[in-house]
Design brief:
The chain is an alpha+beta fold and about 90 residues long. The protein is about 30% helix and about 20% strand. It has one domain (about 20-90): Ribosomal Protein L30, Chain: A (2-Layer Sandwich), CATH 3.30.1390.10.
Length: about 90
């Protein structure tokens, strides 16, 4: 008798074959950053609020770049905040 744990399992993830390098930008809602935008940028970039406020100079600010799995992790963090962001190239997962 064969147990279920002895059965080999295969899985397929499209993300494994995605070779794109994605860039995530935070898009400021106003002309100056809000507290929520500073919190989000600080958390995702792992920097303090003062550093985050110094880096949020433009309307569109680069958070970072990475593969599809990295984007998935960053989006999980960003979902906690009411902010605008953009992913280039478009992220479809």
């Amino acid at each position: 008798m064969k147990l279920e744990e002895d059965i080999p399992v295969t899985s397929y993830s499209v993300m494994l074959y995605d070779k794109n390098i994605y860039k995530i930008y935070i898009i400021l809602k106003g002309n100056k950053y809000s507290k929520m935008e500073i919190k989000a940028f600080s958390k995702v970039c792992n920097i303090n609020y003062i550093e985050a406020s110094k880096k949020l100079k433009n309307k569109k600010n680069l958070i970072g770049e990475g593969n599809a799995y990295w984007v998935k992790d960053i989006l999980k963090q960003l979902s906690q905040y009411d902010i605008n962001y953009e992913i280039i190239p478009p992220y479809c997962y």
